[in-house]
UniProtKB/TrEMBL annotation:
Family: Belongs to the FAD-dependent oxidoreductase 2 family. NadB subfamily.
Function in brief: Catalyzes the oxidation of L-aspartate to iminoaspartate.
SUPFAM superfamilies: FAD/NAD(P)-binding domain, Succinate dehydrogenase/fumarate reductase flavoprotein C-terminal domain, Succinate dehydrogenase/fumarate reductase flavoprotein, catalytic domain
Species this chain originates from: Aurantiacibacter flavus
Occurrences of domain Fumarate reductase/succinate dehydrogenase flavoprotein-like C-terminal (ranges): 437-516
Annotated GO MF terms: L-aspartate oxidase activity
Protein name: L-aspartate oxidase
Length: 528
């Protein structure tokens, strides 16, 4: 048996990964890897905030109901209860770490977002994620049991087939990662591994997610033998800025929560009245995104308008300073004029199947955060429930590892990465072209409204690309671009296969061939 310097490997330095690291570090040595910078995940980009029942007039039951209404009945009630009941303590921990949530006299200020029946979103202006990421990172950096290693692109999980004496077991012993500074692939071994690698948003041409959201963890876990579920439930945020240069700037849902109206850009008609007259702009995301998509297609528009200029200028600037500043640089004064917006991919509701302790199907592998399917979001995530899921499941996975630590076996000798492949620089152009091709056809064929024919077209293209990409991967030195291309394609395949399995329209999966919602909600679980 080899002695590894770290007890637990965590892949991902966002909200889920760092939360897990801080709980584990009370007793164990932890290595946290990030692809690129430590702040490269979606966590740092989050705007709106974190949902939690903190107001005397609000109840857990209301938050549970709102989550399940948004999730169109596909949520797992036990998971929803588990996460929502742990929300207040998660917020307390963040306060202890020094996250400077906005306050109103002696209590936290609560904003409102679509699908929530109460004000229950704690926030740091309109840049909550940055403040949370900074506080978690600071605490991790100060903890001598945590080592943070950026510039590590994990390529594959280490399992029984990588042991020097092949055991064939499905147990996970860490991961091989490309050190992008030295260009070598290193085996990071550990008795337990937590996948906290975020979502797969970049599989779509237009996404609010950062460049690295290529579903690496979902694809790695799938290839190692873990089940993946509900991948067809890709969430499109209704209001991404429409701009020819900047394609992924989010305009937080809190703008609608604080009174913003969605308007037809030519007639000024407040069109949500035609789609959801009761909830209007504060209907769940799938409803609002579909309404905007319909307006754009029906009237041949490039965008619709989001208008909050009827609120006092100081109110707008105080609530949305980041967005105000950004728009000002683009010549838009949101206190006086409407903002052009379009829907864009935003969140991956499906992912690696986990239980309430964050355990996957594979011994030694846990998972938390956006790369998972915990049962919380169902067919459509409720706004600001995602960061919450990261805190609750990051902590739950860590606690389970601590509780069972004596049963975690020492790591056997592991084979080094095969470095005998060659670089063929000619192929790098092709890798980029394939990236673009996948993202385009996913946007056009597997978007907000789907048809079986289009899904089958996408499946056909994926099949053709698969042979090509596996050929590069088998022959050439791994680069981050190649690793991401392979994972994007894998996730595209999982999304399309799941979408083809769901013969109904539910939540985020709207398919013209099956417009009705089936009486019984069933997960689309894929088994490797
Ligand atoms: P991430 O924060 O995405 O972190 C992933 C980590 O994994 C990164 O460190 C990355 O480097 C690492 N990684 C990935 N692949 C590899 C690899 N191959 N090798 C090594 N490391 C790897 N949710 C809310 O609840 N409230 C909000 O207000 C909100 N606003 C949002 C705004 C935007 C613009 C976006 C994009 C999302 C928003 N979300 C919001 C969603 C939320 O931010 C994410 O779901 C959440 O931050 C995911 O956290 P995570 O820890 O799972 O992953
Ligand atoms: C937003 O601020 O609109 C994003 C919130 C979320 O994704 O939960």
């Amino acid at each position: 048996m080899t002695d590894t310097p770290y007890d637990v490997l965590i892949i991902g330095s966002g909200a889920a990964g760092l939360t897990a690291a801080l709980t584990l570090a009370t007793k164990l040595k932890v290595l946290v890897l990030a692809k690129g910078k430590l702040t490269s995940g979606s966590t740092a980009w989050a705007q709106g905030g974190i949902a939690a029942v903190l107001d005397a007039g609000d109840t857990f039951e209301d938050h549970i109901r709102d989550t399940m209404v948004a999730g169109a009945g596909l949520n797992d009630r036990e998971t929803v209860e588990f996460v929502i009941s742990h929300a207040p303590e998660a917020i307390d921990r963040l306060c202890e770490l020094g996250v400077p949530f906005n306050r109103e006299s002696d209590h936290l200020h609560l904003t409102r977002e679509g699908g929530h029946s109460h004000r229950r979103i704690v926030h740091v202006d309109d840049a909550t994620g940055w403040a949370v990421q900074a506080a978690l990172l600071k605490a991790a950096e100060e903890n001598c049991n945590i080592t943070l290693l950026p510039n590590q692109t994990c390529v594959e999980l280490i399992t029984g087939r990588h042991e020097e004496r092949y055991s064939g077991s499905g147990r996970v012993w860490g991961a091989y990662a490309l050190d992008t500074v030295s260009g070598t692939v290193v085996a990071h071994t550990a008795r337990a591994t937590i996948m906290a690698s975020g979502g797969a948003g970049r599989v779509y041409q237009f996404s609010t997610a950062p460049r690295g959201a290529t579903g690496d963890g979902i694809a790695m876990a799938w290839r190692a033998g873990a089940r993946v579920s509900n991948m067809e439930m890709m969430q499109f945020h209704p209001t991404c800025l429409y701009n020819l240069e900047i394609k992924n700037f989010l305009i937080t849902e809190a703008v609608r929560g604080e009174g913003g109206h969605l308007l037809h850009p030519e007639t000024g008609h407040r069109f949500m009245v035609d789609y959801d007259p009761e909830r209007m702009e504060l209907a769940p995301r799938d409803v609002v995104a579909r309404a905007i998509d319909d307006q754009i297609k029906r009237y041949g528009l490039d965008y619709v308008h989001l208008d909050i200029s009827h609120q006092p200028p100081e109110f707008v600037m105080e609530h949305f300073p980041t967005i105000y500043d950004k728009l000002e640089t683009l010549g838009i004064d949101m206190t006086k004029e409407p903002i052009p917006v379009v829907p864009a991919q935003h969140y991956t509701c499906g992912g690696i199947v986990i239980d309430l302790a964050g355990r996957t199907d594979l011994p030694g592998l846990y998972a938390a955060g956006e790369c998972t399917e915990s049962g919380l979001h169902g067919a459509n995530r409720l706004a600001s429930n995602s960061l919450l899921e990261c805190f609750v499941f990051g902590d739950a996975a860590a606690r389970d590892i601590l509780a069972r630590w004596d049963n975690f076996e020492a790591v056997p000798p592991i084979r080094a990465w095969d470095e005998s492949r060659v670089t063929d620089s000619d192929e790098e152009v092709v890798i980029k072209q394939n990236w673009t091709e996948i993202r385009r056809f996913m946007w056009n064929y597997v978007g907000i409204v789907r048809t079986t024919k289009r899904l089958e077209r996408a499946a056909h293209r994926i099949k053709l690309l698969h042979t090509e990409v596996e050929d590069y991967y088998g022959h050439f030195t791994v680069t981050t671009d190649l690793v991401e291309l392979r994972n994007l394609l894998q996730c595209a395949d999982l999304i399309v296969q799941s979408a083809l399995k769901r013969h109904e329209s539910r939540g985020l999966h709207s398919i013209l061939d099956y417009p009705e919602t089936a009486p019984l909600p069933v997960d689309t679980v894929l088994v490797p």
